[in-house]
Specification:
about 270 residues; mainly beta; 1 helix
Length: about 270
Amino acid sequence: MRITRSLSMQQKFFTSILLTFVLLVISPLSHAVLQDEIQVYDDEINDKGEFSLELHLNTTPNGVRDSSYPGEIMNQGNTRLTPELAYGLGHGLEAGLYVNTVFNGSNWDYAGYKVRLKWLPILEKDGYDFFAGVNFELSNVLYQYEQSRYSLETRFILGKHIDKWLIAVNPVLGYQLSQPYQSTAPAFSFGARVSREVTTDLALGVEYYSDIGALNQTFQYQQTGQAAFLMMYWDGKPFAFQAGIGKGFTESTDSLTLKAIISVPFN
């Protein structure tokens, strides 16, 4: 039997999301620069007491070579390997920890860490017509990878399954916290995913990422980040993973990026 929810509950949820959005616009947020993970968040979340481990891997064979500040290590020619440990807290909550590392030539560098809290109070499995939530992330990243060492990110999660299709969008607000690089206005970026199941375990799709930058700056398309990825998603044996190849469309975007996310199975 289909579970139904009253319109007033959905209205209350979106009112709370709107209020959160307004508060975040006028308070510190973050915009992450280190390319440690490239993904669109959907309705996946650990159950209470459940652990998971994912390895985020991406590399840039052909990328932007001009740094945006002194001492910055660019993505060009480098590979990022980021383990992510997550734990389900129950009540639609999940905590996560990223440990950032970068293979820079022959060197393997520690780049920092990030902690996050995901909240998904609306899920289709609970009878809603869509899924929705938000992910908060606090980062501590070394200067050569992000100009502001401390930052915060708020990622909204919205989406829906339609037969064998999945549509998900992630509007993201961010703010740099460290002096003298503290942001005066939130930065905005956006991720979207459209995929379709081919078999029970395999789906194919497209992901698009748009990085607009600080909202108080004049919009210039070539100075923004714009990239699309052709993706495959495998949810079978021996382990689940996703992989994709990405193309940048502006002079400020890496031209070619390869990425993968590997789920390490727990017994």
